[in-house]
Design goal:
mainly beta; 14 strands; structural constituent of muscle; immunoglobulin domain
């Protein structure tokens, strides 16, 4: 069976009383089922993340949908530093990582998945604690 091809089916009913006469369907087109995206943050980060500066910030999520959605991570309170952020999308898994996180990496991170059936987002807050700077 090939996607996009048209097929006619012949159906026969069968029960305890015997077999009924065959019937033919209208042409049926094979199509991949479509599902809107779902986004689920890992339970370890759903309620927010608190780490010390210098540690790795890791935000894992699971994304599903048909066709597989495009995935975009954003930082609501600022801009993601593209030189320091690594985003790995493998199968249904999407992980945003920042090695040696800095205090400026704090904020509300939003993952958005989009396909032709819709869009879905999830968000979590990251707090990065560091030694206070000098008093001015």
């Amino acid at each position: 069976i090939r996607e996009g091809a048209d097929y006619k089916l012949r159906v026969t009913a069968l029960n305890i009383a015997g077999e009924g006469p065959p019937g033919e369907t209208e042409p049926v087109t094979v199509a991949e089922p479509k599902e809107p995206p779902t986004v689920e943050l890992d339970v370890s980060v759903k309620q927010g993340v608190q780490i010390l500066a210098g540690q790795t910030l890791r935000l894992p999520a699971t994304v599903t949908g048909r066709p597989h959605p495009t995935i975009v991570w954003t930082l609501e309170d600022g801009e993601i530093d593209k030189e320091r952020v690594v985003i790995e999308n493998v199968g249904p898994s999407s992980v945003l990582s920042i090695k040696n996180a800095l205090r400026k990496d704090h904020g509300r991170y939003v993952i958005t998945a989009t396909n032709e059936s819709g869009s879905k987002s999830a968000a979590t807050r990251a707090e990065i604690f560091d030694v206070p700077g000098p008093v001015t």
